[in-house]
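Good morning,

Attaching, inline, the backbone tokens for the sequence recovery test we're adding to the shared suite. The designed sequence is right after.
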């Protein structure tokens, strides 16, 4: 049987990397994306592209009726800070979009779903590394929308025969190692894109949120996972569902944490430039350390992170920023 996948949000940052990985490995891909944050520039030339919105029920119905072996659901709002001031937007897009998708998949021949979830479902870590059995207690509305969809999905699996792999990403970073994806996220909120903008002089200085944490240099530490490693996990998840594998919820991280200052230092080394920065107070809601236990993904999907050292993460990001600058 031909391997075909519908990728909802396949023009976005993670979605475009997932599409490239699937096509590289011989899958046939249809992308549904409304281009609200995704970019035409990042569409794979061999993917079929349908411009449209997940909330357009008739369009979704028509696509799902075609019968996909897997649906990858990435399209969502994802800025934790913004979700606390605009919960209506996150309610409509993430919860509303998710509801339409579950209802329509339940009625269609496309029954296998790979869901883009987040470490934000755990909230403030009670112990490290975080495994999938850690209590879920999101500290922001964004994390709540992801957890809520996970729970709804489990009910639809039980009651309507959907099958799923939920992927809980830690801090996604990096760009395609072959330099094929160069469209950058607009108004990024995460550390590494902000470091890149500071290197390029596109912002005055980076603010380091706190240097009084209990870490090796006092700055916050996170588990940064290369987007190419994330992309491969989606392809393995699609294969797992194709082969009749069980429903799964797994962490995707590296088990290693890096501090803000380590990232600044490595970025300076790679670029040969200085990152202008100043240390300010802690950002509200930021935990000291976040770290994944990915043993379950390894056991069930045969997945291990391969490209998630700081060097490949930061050098691929730097190359994408330079290529983007050259294009504009
Ligand atoms: C954020 C989200 C989280 C989401 C994750 C992946 C919050 C509170 N959390 O995690 O829900 O799942 O992204 O998208 O928004 N930092 C600075 N200066 C900056 C920006 C960041 O020092 O200008 C520090 C932070 O304090 C943190 C680290 O860099 O220690 C990473 O921050 P960020 O990239 O925003 O990701 P998280 O906060 O870990």
């Amino acid at each position: 049987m031909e391997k075909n996948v519908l990728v909802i949000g396949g023009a976005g940052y993670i979605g475009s990397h997932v599409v490239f990985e699937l096509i590289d490995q011989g899958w046939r891909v249809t992308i549904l994306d409304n281009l609200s944050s995704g970019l035409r520039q990042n569409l794979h030339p061999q993917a079929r592209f349908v411009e449209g919105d997940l909330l357009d029920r008739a369009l979704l119905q028509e696509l799902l009726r075609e019968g996909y072996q897997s649906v990858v659901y990435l399209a969502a709002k994802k800025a934790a800070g913004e979700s606390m001031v605009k919960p209506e937007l996150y309610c409509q897009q993430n919860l509303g979009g998710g509801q339409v998708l579950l209802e329509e998949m339940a009625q269609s021949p496309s029954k296998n779903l790979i869901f883009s979830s987040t470490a934000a479902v755990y909230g403030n870590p009670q112990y490290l590394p975080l495994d999938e059995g850690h209590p879920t207690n999101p500290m922001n509305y964004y994390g709540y929308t992801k957890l809520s969809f996970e729970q709804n999905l489990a009910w639809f699996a039980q009651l309507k025969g959907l099958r799923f792999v939920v992927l809980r990403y830690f801090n996604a970073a990096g760009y395609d190692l072959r330099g094929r994806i160069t469209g950058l996220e607009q108004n990024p909120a995460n550390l590494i894109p902000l470091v890149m903008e500071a290197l390029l002089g596109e912002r005055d200085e980076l603010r380091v949120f706190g240097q009084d944490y209990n870490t090796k240099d006092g700055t916050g530490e996170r588990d940064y996972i290369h987007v190419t490693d994330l992309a491969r996990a989606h392809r393995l998840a699609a294969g797992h569902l194709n082969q009749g594998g069980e429903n799964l919820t797994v962490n995707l991280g590296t088990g290693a944490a890096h501090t803000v200052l380590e990232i600044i230092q490595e970025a300076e080394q790679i670029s040969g430039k200085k990152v202008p920065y100043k240390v300010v107070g802690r950002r509200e809601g930021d935990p000291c350390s976040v770290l994944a236990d990915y043993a379950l993904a390894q056991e069930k999907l045969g997945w291990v992170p391969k490209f998630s050292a700081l060097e490949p993460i930061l050098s691929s990001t730097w190359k994408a920023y330079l290529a983007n600058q050259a294009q504009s």
